[in-house]
Amino acid sequence: MSGDHLVFIAVASVLIVSAVNTVVLNREHGWREGEAFWFWGLIALSVSYLGFGTSAWLGPLALSVANLGLLLAYLAMSLQLRYWQTSRTNVPIWLVSGAVLYMVVLEYLRATAPYTPRLHLIHVTMSVITAYLFYSAVSYYRKNGSTQLMVLATTFAIEFLCAFSRFVLTVIQPASTNQQMTLYEEPIVMVILRWIWLMANAMSYLTVMTFELEKTLNKNETLRVLLKEKDLLLNALSRHNRSDKSAAVGRTLSHELRQPLTTLLLASKNLQAQLKSNDLTDLDMQVDFLCKECERSANLVNQLEEVFRPKRAHMPATNIASAIDQAIKTMQPRLDADNVKVHLIGDFACTVPADTAQLETVFINLISNSINALSNRSKDKQITIEAQTQPLACAITVRDNGSGIDPSVLPNLWQLYVSDEAKGSGIGLWLSQQIVQNHSGQIEAGNTPDSGAWFRVVLPRKG
What are the per-10-residue average pLDDT scores of the chain (463 residues)? Predict the structure, then answer.
């Protein structure tokens, strides 16, 4: 066995250890749909390098496995970058067909042709794939701003240069057609380029692994703390103010929540400035999201007092589609974490006179309730939002396939402090009803025949 074989096996061992570490951490913190393409690519890359390393014993069979693993690793990384940019998790049929065709042609050349034609096919294919990966990584870096993505783009650029350079060298000086050259009989320049490509290839997967595991470990950590504090405060208010009137609850919530949220907003913005000054841009995306959420929460607190004031004579025109879209974006982290799919049905191009922030609050509360109702399902969690445009009103129905509403709770569902959830405060639905009624609308709820629940909001259209 040569030193080349040993290096391949050594690198494969490092990748296998990294894959095992990934499994352990993700089993503890949870896998996310669409975020595992790179992991399967890491497995395929480990198999590929083991194939190259054991080819001294297993011969052409090991090389066939190695080339297949390498192709699968590149395709997996392509699918991961595609998901990050488009959120699509399907595997295109043309991609599978191209991979099968490549392997068939490669094995045919291995059996019938000298070494050079195989090199040309391998290097051209790898040049095209790595060029695409480089372009995708740079595009996502411009959107995300993570330093790790720039490192990833750099590794793909190195891999492209190595693969293309090896192609050019084999064109200038073809391998002998009188012998079947092996991977370990190349000129020294080819060997150097191969090892640079090998290290860049392994580094690209290790870079993505650290990028993904960091997102997993820090996933919504700051937001979870904020939500926990909010729940504690609301539950405390529920225990000590059960006899309060609606207006008193609104003033209490406004007073108690405004100060901590404002403090948290200032602290998060200060942290954001410090991160940017230290060039820690890989964490900036989460901090920026936290700042936006704090600003939205502070705005909602200011809107609470509006709920209890006399109804305004004139409301601004609000687009239903925009309000629902913003509500879904706000709840997207929870939807992703709980693997809940949202389906939109109907024509949402309807305008109603409404306060935009308050209307978004209603839909956020309804989506949040549906997510909670789906917590007992292990799969196929569905939320359907349907729009029905009537001559004088817009009706929006939010349905889920969860456990439904307890029939004993349903008659009093809209009363303050009444909740169908063990840990619920009983404020969200009551507040939603107050908002809808202040907009001259109606809100109602019920159970679907298949045990799920539905909530319908009907608002008058803009005159």
Answer: 76 84 71 74 88 81 85 87 82 85 84 78 87 89 81 89 86 58 62 82 81 63 56 56 50 50 58 60 57 60 54 73 88 84 88 85 88 84 90 90 84 67 61 85 88 90 67
Three-class SS state of 303: helix
What six digits make up the tokens of 448? 């679907």
Cβ-contact 52, 66 below 8 angstroms: yes
pLDDT reported for residue 142: 84
Closest C-alpha among 338, 339, 335, 369 to residue 443: 369
Task: Classify residue 24 as exposed, middle or buried by CB count within 10 Å of its CB (0-12, 13-18, 19+).
Answer: exposed
Burial of 455 (0-12, 13-18, 19+ CB in 10 A): buried
DSSP class of residue 410 equals: G
How many angstroms separate the CA atoms of 328 and 45, rounded? 37
CB 234 within 8 A of CB 365: no
Q: Is the pTM of this model over 0.70?
A: no
Block residue for tokens 């480990």: 46
Residue 5's pLDDT is 79
Query: What residue segments make up the domains of the chain, in order of their start?
Result: 3-217, 221-308, 317-460
- The Cα–Cα gap between 350 and 419 comes to 31
CATH of 3-217, one of 1.20.1070, 1.10.1740, 2.10.240, 1.10.20: 1.20.1070
- CA contacts within 13 A on the Cβ side of 59: 3
DSSP element (H, E) containing 315: none
Q: If 0-12 CB within 10 Å is exposed, 13-18 middle and 19+ buried, where does residue 368 land?
A: middle
Q: Answer yes or no: are the C-beta atoms of 135 and 160 closer than 8 Å.
A: no
Residue 196's nearest CA partner among 227, 173, 163 is 163
- Give kind and range of the element (H or E) at residue 76: helix 60-86
Helix segments in 374-442, DSSP class H: 428-438
Instruction: Write the secondary structure of 335-364 as one string of H (helix), E (strand) and C (coil).
Output: HHHCCEEEEEEECCCCEEECCHHHHHHHHH
* Residues contacting residue 263 through CB under 8 Å, at least 6 positions apart: none
Architecture of domain 317-460: 2-Layer Sandwich (3.30)
- Please say whether the beta carbons of 141 and 149 come within 8 A: yes
Closest by CA to 50, choosing from 20, 22, 14, 77, is 14
Q: Say if residues 46 and 17 touch (Cβ distance below 8 Å).
A: no
Calculate the CA 294 to chain-centre distance: 21
| Residue 396: per-residue pLDDT | 93
